Amino acid sequence: MSLDRLRRDGEVFMEEISREYYLAYSGQKQSPELQPVYAKHAAILGDESFELAREAFVAAPENSEERRSARALLDWQVESQSSRQLAAQDEREIEWEGTAVVNVGDARQLQYQAVAIELANERDAGARHAIEAARDKLVTAELAPLRRERFQRERDIVEKLGLGDYVETFELLSGVSLVDLAAACQGFLRDTDDMWREVLPEFSRRVLGMAPSELTRADAAALFRARSFDASFPAARMEESIRRQVREMGIDPLAGGRIVLDTGEREGKRSRAFCSSVRVPDEVYLVMRPHGGQTDWMTFLHELGHALHFAYMQPDLAFEYRWLGDNSITEGYAMLFDHRMQDSGWLARYTELSATNLPAFIRTIGFEELHFLRRYCAKLVYELELYGGATRWESLPDVYVERLTAATSFRYGRADAFVDVDPRFYAARYLRAWQLQALINETLVDRYDVDWWRNPRAGPWICSALFGEGQRELAHEQAERIAGKELSFGPLLRAVERMLG
Ligand SMILES: [Zn+2]
């Protein structure tokens, strides 16, 4: 076993496992066949390969390129240790999600996957709450126990590796201080409390005809569906308009055929959009199931940011920088694209919004941004408790409800305490990506002006200075390199204040 073999065989393994996930989540296969892939590649997923990566990491001098590379490989080996041992469980869970049916009353059956779409489009609060209650009952009985067991086992597997407890291991391999980030999240929640309390009643009354005290999480989906702007975001124009914008900034939106768009309806397709890089940079899928309206545009922009990142990576970049590393980087590019939905110039040029409804739309999108930031801050604080080990598993559902309800004002249910969790602190990747995209945008404005997104010189720079590098850098290193600044919530807070002002 050698590091070169780990890279070479690791890439084949990642391609095969990604293809299984892509086929299952896009509805082309009922359940991914993960276990045969793990069995085939057992040699690079076992104790020996983990030890090799650990020794390389320990032996490399701090701040060296070897250390950077070994950190990415070791992080991947740690994740592989649990995903290999939990493969059977993951297959069951994915199959469940693809086939489960929610019984709403006697007469109505919904695919579990379609619940989010139904809730967003259901206009009657009573009907939404009935769907939510039926879904929560099913989740509590079937999915929640599977997920809880998975988190418990994952924590045990990681802690047995001897790198520290779960949180310490994550911090060591991600270069992120979760404790500092969670403190910043608490600060952001405090700083925006008054703003949130002021703005929520206005929206809940006007859009849903409900008082904030009546709201549950089911109403959030309908509230953010923001139907009044549908005519400005026609489904038929979405792909064409956004592809035009990408061309205008000097990038081929399909990357010479390396990106495949899968945006049609298909039974079993997940409602949550995703981008799957099956071969990097040569075979990238953008998969989504449109619901209608502005949310689709935002989702498409987000996933296209990922797709372009994967498809424009330098092909000769080492395996670990194309496939592994800090996902705050790829999420940062996805958010750089989806935040064009907050950019008046972009909206005026590529959507059907007019001078009369643009200000109202910006205010709505500012409200939505504040909600999602507060939700993710609360999630990270909660997930630190989930993985931290100080709170008993039995108490976590109550902690979850308390944290998420306090931050968002929507009443959350206990059913989701182990379901609405981004595994392996992915919420931290999102939060840092949110902070990073604000700095990338500032840099692009400095270099290419406020309408950088239609400057034909901006795209080539993004491809070479950002996308081409894969995920070699950590998010805070990239912020330092391109903007000379530290990641923080400051620019996000100012943007929200401006939009709601
Ligand atoms: Zn993403």
General description of the model:
This protein is mainly alpha-helical and 501 residues long. It is 64% helix and 5% strand. The protein contains 21 helices and 5 strands. It has helices at residues 3-25, 34-40, 47-59, 65-85, 87-99, 115-121, 125-160, 166-174, 178-208, 217-224, 235-248, 294-311, 319-323, 327-338, 344-350, 358-388, 396-408, 426-448, 458-466, 475-483, 490-500; strands spanning 101-104, 108-111, 259-262, 274-279, 283-287. The strands form 2 sheets. The protein has a 3-stranded mixed beta sheet. A two-stranded antiparallel sheet has the order 1-2. A hairpin with a 3-residue loop joins strand 1 (101-104) and strand 2 (108-111). The mean pLDDT is 95. The structure holds zinc ion. Zinc ion binds at residues 302, 306, 331, 334.
Order of helices and strands: HHHHHEEHHHHHHEEEHHHHHHHHHH
Topology, number of strands: 5
Are any ligands bound, and if so which?
Answer: zinc ion
Low-pLDDT parts are none
Overall average residue pLDDT: 95
N-to-C terminal Cα separation, in Å? 59 Å
- How much strand? under 5%
Radius of gyration: 22 Å
User: Pairing-aware structural class of the strands and helices?
Assistant: mainly alpha
Overall 3D shape: globular
With helices defined by DSSP (H or I, 4 residues minimum), what is the helix count? 21
Main β-sheet, spatial strand arrangement: 3-5-4
Q: Percentage of helical residues? A: 55-70%
Biggest pleated sheet: 3 strands, mixed
